[in-house]
Design a protein that fits this description.
Layout: H1 3-22, E1 28-31, E2 37-40, H2 42-48, H3 52-55, H4 71-83, E3 86-96, E4 100-112, E5 119-127, H5 129-162, H6 170-191, H7 200-208, E6 218-220, H8 230-249, E7 259-267, E8 270-278, H9 291-303, E9 307-313, E10 316-324, H10 325-328
Parallel strand pairs: 6-7
Antiparallel strand pairs: 1-2, 1-5, 3-4, 4-5, 7-8, 8-10, 9-10
Helix pairs in contact: 5-6, 6-8, 7-8, 8-9
Length: 332
Amino acid sequence: MNTEDLYRLLRTGHVQAQGVVDTVADPLLVLDDSLRVQSASRSFFDTFKVDRYETIGQRIYELGNGQWDIPELRRLLMEVIPKSSAVIDYQIDHDFPDLGQRTMLVTARTLHHPDRGSRSMLMTIVDATDRYRESAAKDVVFGELRHRMKNLLGVALSIARQTATEGRTAEQYRDDFLGRFGALVEAQDMAFAEADSLGLKTVFERLLAAYAVSPDAIEIAPGPALTLDPRAIMSLNLVLHELATNAAKHGALSVPGGRVRVSWRIEADDIRITWAERGGPPVSPPETAGYGSRLIQHATTYSLGGQVEQAYAAGGFEAEILIPLGKAFLPG
């Protein structure tokens, strides 16, 4: 075999080897024992927007703007060759030119050359940025779900404990508890709905529909377009449930012809919600505050950051609920 044939053979082998390297989807480098780049895949050039002149023959920690010049990574790579060990998914967070802030996972393994005494290294680089971001987003969603479930179970337990039992039948206790628990379920269903279904008017319509004994029993007056924060729906639903339940038992919704009007308006940095009953039996303040009244007060004050006033007027029961705009309502 003459020199020309040997050169052709070597060149063919090199082209074939480079072709194999170029088939790898993730960026790949072949380094010698001094960490100089011997070969690079097409995906490496495409990903990092560099050419062969900037890459081949350069040490790994000299590439680009020094993004690979990390003492710990250099030490790990230097140990790969003499110890025949490996670096697996070493994480690098860096602001790469033309790529921005990315998270890269580096894996390096020794390549043995039994026909010659030297060794080289195969180094692959995986862009894990999107994977890490998705994982972080899932963690946030899971944490929010766990927090919501904890709150839901805590409220359900409180309702079970606080619903009065003295002087009442088991059926009466069951009906009161299941009514309040059903309000929680409805609130959770709405809280997980799409954002565009959480307009305040829609919330009122859905939560109060079950209490309308006739088509005109409950009037929801027109008001400014507002979107309720899903986290506030449970608290507002509990308040509305108590108001509607009391109206159905003792107030305007307990007799034919009784009416309830719900309205809201913006006052400076607050939303004022008005509940007004008309056409019902005479009302008077209770001698002692029951759990329902305490629940309304607690949900409005502590959960919604607002305040509530209840008035037993001659014309019927009224409630004024004041909620800060930034506490329960989404911007825009």
